Amino acid sequence: MLGKTEKVILAFILFIGAALRIHNFWDFSLSNDELSALARLNFDSFSDLIMNGVRIDGHPAAAQVILWHMTKWFGNGVFVVRLPFVLAGILSVYFMFQLAKEWISTSAGLLSAAVFATLEFPLLYSRIARPYALGMLFALMAAKLWIRIVKQKQKPSDFVWLAFSLALCAYSHYFAALTAGILAFIGLFLIRGKNLKLYLFALIGALLLYLPYIPIFLHQLSLGGVGQWLGPPENDWIFKHLHYVFNDSAFVILLVLAAGIAGVLIFKPKKNFQNHVLPFFLFLTPFLVGFFYSRNVNPVLQDSTLLFSFPFLLVFLFSGWNDGKEKLSYATTGILLFVILLSTTVEKRFYQTNHFGVFKELAEHIIVWNAEVEHDALLIGDFNFPFYIDYYIEKQDPIKFTLYRTTDETGLAELKSVVDTSSKEFLIYAWSTVNQAPEVEAIIQEKFPIEVKREVYFNSEVVMFKKGENESPTFEFNFEKTDVWNFNPDAVQTDSVGSKIILISPENPYGPTLQIALAKLQEKSFSEVRVRIECAKNDTENQLQLVFDQGNENGGYAWESDAFKFQFKKGGPKWGVFYYKLKDEQSDSDVLKIYPWLPEGKSVKMSSMEIRFR
User: Fold this and answer.
1) CA 276 – CA 229 distance, rounded (Å)
2) Phi and psi at residue 466, to the nearest 5°
3) In a shared domain, residues 194 and 316
4) Residues 480, 472: contact at Cβ < 8 Å?
């Protein structure tokens, strides 16, 4: 039983943890992943939700099921959407205390809860409508029940609740399921006698509870992970992760380590596997599984995926503390709580920082700016799905974008067509949580060259452009050889109206080549290159490439090639724009070459080529 003082301290920790998680959780922008979940809720039946809203995703069903019910009952406002996950995050602080208390001592429970309540890492994932808070809560519940059984301090009902909590881990997040699976497996070697039989029944019960979902799990497993944008981890990944989870703060790391070491030095506990090795093993094992799977099969390891095993690290760090010096325990708990609270809110500026790409702020700017120019703006966006920005815009102004995606396979060609034919005086371009192509703004500025204003956020941005005169090219190909332009004069032809064109063909695969010493460009502090090429015919099947080649007498050290066809569509403009950044020079003899190249396919007639350095 907790004494009165321990209850007061725990209540204060829970109050701080709850306040941090509740503060304005409804006011910051929904993330790309949260909006993706909302976009997959428009189903009339539960079976349709599972088959069409869950099965196609890479996450288990729990979060999506909760969102489906919440939005059907109360609407899809941000407060409603996030509330269940915030509550799960608050409860996780309590179960963090319970886990460390059952495993080590009340002092360890208070210390662990104080750190868990205030660190940015668990706080961040307790405030968004994603599976993390649920998996964190259920993993803590399962671990608490599990260690009670291992230490033979259980009640008969603990076996029943263990079965439910293990199954709920699997329904929440696959790394929470991995954590639960490791617990379940290790328990087979630590539990003996009658408890082992009951424990096996609990595991069988958990499996039976999860059995209906296994076909969906196997399908989701076949989809792969996030390897298309997440690379394999480096060998030092775990050290960077540990730095991150402790607020990227050397002071916080030293303080937590000092508190942990102090417990060992002051209380001098007898070392045993259960208390001083097992917690660290349970923290490390999910990392090792994720690390080697990511290196050898498919990248899945992220900071967020180790959230579910993070509590074991705190149990390990405070495993030296017992309840022999209450005042010291209370004082250390207070210091940790206060210092990490300041680190998160002041040093890390948690509430002033965008942790994900925003949509709410973009929508606000778009609505205000569009009204300022009396709706004389072409609206262009780059979002994974129109709903993500419309969620916020339609609540204030039912305006629609002309184009919602510019960096998919046909996006640049579509963008070029709408920009080229628009009668609007202004263009507002916004993007969030997509890999940006620099050609997007280069294309926009062919017709809207004046940048009026720009607002930049984490992994998101909105900018307004205006029509005007484009700047003169730095170098323009005039069908004459110069000190910077070279070409094959035999490839030059005259069209029916007397204009010159150059034929790029399998026999003459190289078009006009700009060659210039890099030193001359750097004398003028140039760092960007924009190339504009116009063809005599809009051929969407041409295989023409534009090559950027930077090198010296030792060979090339920066080479890029971009296909023309991604900027062309039938009936669209005949021009294309390409963007490059100059690389750092390696010697005084470095040379830049830019030229069209036809590696294969039928001939292309090119009518102009202009290069602007900035």
Assistant:
1) 38
2) -135, 150
3) yes
4) no
From residue 239, how far is each of 234, 257, 447 by CA, in Å? 10, 15, 49
Same domain as 175, residue 315: yes
Q: Are residues 239 and 332 in the same domain?
A: yes
pTM of the model: 0.90
Task: Evaluate whether 594 touches 564 at the Cβ level (below 8 Å).
Answer: no
Rg over alpha carbons for the chain, rounded to the nearest Å, is 30
Whether the Cβ atoms of residue 446 and residue 467 lie closer than 8 Å to each other: no
Q: CATH number of the domain at 500, please.
A: 2.60.120
| 87 and 206 inside one domain | yes
Domain of residue 440, residue span: 360-466
> Contact 484/515 with Cβ under 8 angstroms?
yes
Q: What percent helix, strand, coil does the chain show, rounded to 5?
A: 50, 15, 35
Residues 6+ apart with CB under 8 A from 374: none
Distance, in Å, from the CA atom of 89 to the CA atom of 36, rounded to the nearest integer, reads 21
Q: Which of 547, 554, 548, 549 is nearest to 589 (CA)?
A: 554
Q: Encoding tokens for residue 292?
A: 């080697």
Rounded Cα distance, 318 and 313, in Å: 9
Same domain, 592 and 555: yes
| CA separation for the pair 188, 532 (Å, rounded) | 68
Average confidence (pLDDT) per 10 residues, the chain, 614 residues: 88 98 97 96 92 89 96 96 98 98 97 98 97 97 97 94 97 96 96 93 97 90 64 93 97 97 93 93 97 91 96 97 93 97 97 96 96 96 96 89 91 92 96 92 94 96 94 89 92 83 91 92 90 83 89 87 85 88 89 92 90 92
Q: Which amino acid is at 444?
A: I
State whether 246 and 344 are in the same domain. yes
Q: What is the helix (H) or strand (E) element at residue 307, kind and residue range?
A: none
Among residues 466, 490, 511, the one where a domain terminates is: 466
**Number of structural domains in the chain:** 3
Tokens standing for residue 31: 């993330």
pLDDT at residue 211 in the model: 95
Q: Give dist(CA 84, CA 287) in Å, integer.
A: 28
Q: Tell whether 510 and 406 lie within a shared domain.
A: no
Beta-bridge partner residues of 591? 517, 551
For helices 131-150 and 174-190, the axis angle rounded to 10 degrees is 0
Domain identity same for 510 and 440 = no
User: Of the residues 318, 352, 386, which one is the last residue of a structural domain?
Assistant: 352
Q: In the numeric block, which tokens belong to residue 563?
A: 């296909």
Q: What is the pLDDT of residue 456?
A: 97
